[in-house]
Amino acid sequence: GVIVTPDFLNTLKLNNNTSLVGTVTALYDIGCFFGAIAAFGLGEPLGRKKTILLGTTIMSIGAILQISAFSVAQMIVGRIVAGIGNGINTATAPVWQGETSKAAWRGKLIVIEMIMNIAGFSLSNWMTYGFSFVPGPISWRFPLAFQFIFIFILYGTVPWLPESPRWLIARGRVDEANQILADLEASDIHDPYVITESKEIQWAVEYERENSVRWRDLLRGKTGNQGGTCTVRRLVLGMGTQAMQQLSGINVTSYYLPTVLIESVGLSNSMARLLAACNSVSYLLFSLIGIPNVERWGRRKMMMYAAAGQCFCYLVITVCIRYTELPGYAHKDEIAKASIAFFFLYYVFFGIGWQG
Question: From the DSSP assignment, how many helices (H) and strands (E) are in the chain?
């Protein structure tokens, strides 16, 4: 919603400069990419909690730069810095969550984590819609500043949360790890289940330490006597699903839905923002379907059916928008309304199938 705010476009001199608007928007994702890469080197030395706090601090700096921006250059730097911080947190949080949760809960918790992202997306849509009625720079600076509410929550809660038992055991802090495992199970350190779980983690950490391989060998799919385990295939499958999630167009559509509704569908600025906000609520509600069903339906089937549904929706949207641009076409309004319906349906498919 910010990129269609008149004061934002006027202040940064971005009116009628769609390529530069696209660059400013996209560089956030570039920052996220480099932040996620940085998490490789930072996660193990610092631990999960300190890595999250570091990412949050970097994100805070980026947010301040964006809020106070009066030039495109400062906004670009702010977007990249905030992206780096978010990339560090995005790469670290699922690992930390997986290492501090029961195996039976991990699938559901991953879906819940993604749903929280959608809830934040929905909140941001309603925030920008509400402030679209306010004149001046507050219409876009306040929505950008609002993220500090959640940054303060992170600063106030992360120091009190348990560190990863696996990371503690890898650092030789077994007693601390045992206490956290007991706390997570609402038991004590002498519980047989806690003892067994601790021993399994210790064995896994020791095995990895004794059989560690270089990144170069891992990427080549060769790990000494363990060669031929299709390492590259597994790596590509894991990375590929994440890449396909983005290549399905979800982030692009989220960024530019108000713009498309204004430029291609012909809606007013206010109506486009309102529909984008309503769509985010629909997106959030349908994503809840995945929580009880992710383990029952299976991740592959959910992703495949959702991708097919998204493909169909984009096909219909493309055809509809093409007809709305035809000069003299008699049913432009009806076709435009149809395209809006399929934008909503596109998010329904993604919300149900791609959260796991």
Answer: 17, 0
